[in-house]
Amino acid sequence: SGTPKPGYDVNPFKDFTQLDWSFITNKSEALILWDDHQSEFKRIMQAHKLGFRHMLFDDNWSPLQGDNYSAKQVCDETGGLALRQPDFPSKKIL
Predict the structure, then answer these.
(1) What values do phi and psi take at 43, rounded to 5?
(2) Which DSSP string do the residues of 26-63 spell out, in sequence order?
(3) What mean pLDDT is predicted for residues 58-77?
(4) pTM recorded for the entire structure
(5) Distances (CA, A) of 71 to 29, 49, 57, 66, 78
(6) Whether the Cβ atoms of residue 55 and residue 32 lie closer than 8 Å to each other
(7) Over the stretch 42-53, which tens digit does the pLDDT of each residue have?
């Protein structure tokens, strides 16, 4: 049913940490744009381990908002509280 749009049908799927980034010779000057709704804290740690230093996140949720652990939540020490509350979806403020 037509040609899939680029980036929509990636088979087999590979996570950021599973890719070979050796083609980027100066990772410390590269910019990663994240839009994968994963823990931003986890992604920062993974990217730093691989030598990347500059990152931009599409979703940087405020406390008690969002669907992942954002850098903003790390910095203001909410610790992803909203993600652990059983009734969180009813409290979500968007």
Answers:
(1) -65, -40
(2) -GGG-EEEE-S-S-HHHHHHHHHHTT--EEEES--PPT
(3) 78
(4) 0.68
(5) 20, 17, 8, 12, 10
(6) yes
(7) 999 999 999 999
